[in-house]
Amino acid sequence: MPVRCLAAPACEPACNFGSDSHSMKFAVELVLFSEGNQHHGGQIAFVVLDPGRINCRAYSRGRGNIGSFGASDGRRAGLSALPESIAAIHSWYSRTVSDLPCAGRRVELRLMARRFVCDIALCRRRIFAELFGDDIIAERSRRTSRLDCIVHHLGLALGGRPAARTAKRLMVPASNDTLLRVVRRRACSYSDELRVVGIDDWAFRRNHRYGTIVCDLERRRIVTLLPDRETATVEAWLADRPQIEIVSRDRGGGYGEATARSLPNAVQVADRWHLMENASAAFLDAVRKSMRSIRTAIGATTIDPELLTYAEKLQYEGYRRREETNAAIMKLAGAGISIKEIVRRTGHSRKLVRQVVRGQRTDIFRARQSSLEAWLPYLDEQWSAGCRNASELWRRIQAKGFRGRPGVVSEWARQRRRAELASEQQLHKVPSARTIARLMTTARDHLSKADTVTIAAIEAGVPMLVEARSLIDSFHYMVRKKIADDLEPWIISASKSLVASFASGILRDRAAVQAAITQPWSNGQTEGQITKLKLVKRQMYGRGKLDLLQARLMPT
């Protein structure tokens, strides 16, 4: 058993004795008692700890507890030949530590440790105690090392209060503060060498406060959590690790700028998922800009209010008010007045003025997602077959799994009858921009007859939109098939189309986009770690601080 004196260096050779090389066993016989303090079956188990030896002296019986009284055996730990200067035992002191439960009862070990006297004149601490070793019982600990490991894993998996409730059921009582304190104490920093990292932001609270997560993409582990997403913070962290060769990031924020400043020779890789999503969003913006041309192509230049439902009439009245605002803003913009001056004159927000100038505020009906969306092909088929009764239609789709109410189907049937009574010169309801974008990017085999006719009219009347769709399709194909040679011609073609703004963004970040097509790395692993981070954060109801989140996500 090692014995250590916390004295001056001159006293260390004399006051540190014992040997950890003695691979001894220490065993404590446990006798189980029932709650009525009656014997429950004799000797049942041995508690084995290694190294060292503890002699069991006595047992105690309590309600639901098992107690064992023991002392260290110095002879078996190499203490039989003590130096003369510390051969005298000053006193004994007892330690009570908790151990793993046995048969559903708590186990406590009461250990006797010796204090020794040091006769060296220069020793500033004349009395010192023997220790049991950190792998058995750590210094000043109230739990054995193996029980402390269980407490640590409970805190990692469940957090504070949930882990405390579980520990109580496991007969390992520990408060929520104790569990979190153990998790924080055992946290460690990432020590492996970094070569490929992924960086992304995550929300402490959405639209208010954000942090940064850094992952090792080779080992698929979290490296660190940064308290914000400022360029200076990321730049300082990257500058301390010049061995990083590849940085995967999304195209937003200041991560690209921070990487270029701190690691000018590192390869930056744009996230492929965000590239695909941004391309789809660019096509949706192109559809929104073309809504006037789309209505002209469909033949929807006027509206008959008699064909509209009450909710659609309210939307149409709001559309007429928006058109007056749009006309006033476009008149000022046509005169060469800046957006800032238009905001000052009209009193509208800068976002609204920018949308009007860019042609992104022209939808008449901002349709909501309907629960009938997935059942429309079947309803069209039944309607064409002659079934015009709304209740019967509802019963048929309910038998196939529809969970909506009959009124939803009745409203659909009412609109269908009004549309059939309308003349060709009257305006039918134009789908929303999002619906048109979805229909234009869906295979023809999956569209209903009415949707096919609508899309055919749009393609014939708005050829620029067809060109934009072809460009987005070719960009998706280029990223999926990793054809990097097509990027430069694609940028040239897209810069003259409705997706020119997206092409200009690709041009500004061309090196990272090129690497995204050619490199095998992407930020998918980082996004998965963010999902795990959100789960842990929500387990603690958003109250977990940065150090605790990092300790739970980066276990030892």
Structure notes:
The structure is a single chain. The chain has 556 residues and is of the alpha/beta class. The protein has 4 domains: 9-136, no CATH class; 196-271 and 522-553, Ribonuclease H-like superfamily/Ribonuclease H (Nucleotidyltransferase, domain 5); 280-290 and 431-511, no CATH class; 303-429, no CATH class. Helix content is 44%, strand content 18%. Strand 3 and strand 4 (65-72) form a beta hairpin. The longest helix is centred in the middle third of the chain and has 25 residues, at 310-334.
For the record, the count of structural domains works out to 4
| Spatial shape | elongated
- Tell me roughly what share of residues is in helical segments: 40-55%
Q: Give the distance, in angstroms, between the N- and C-terminal Cα atoms.
A: 27 Å
Integer-rounded radius of gyration: 37 Å
Overall SS class: alpha/beta
Average pLDDT score: 79
Strand content: 15-25%
Could you name the ranges where pLDDT drops below 50 across 5 or more consecutive residues?
Answer: 1-10, 12-61, 73-86, 423-427
Q: In this structure, how is the largest beta sheet organized?
A: 5 strands, mixed
Oligomeric state as shown:
single chain
Total DSSP helices? 22
Report the count of strand segments. 12
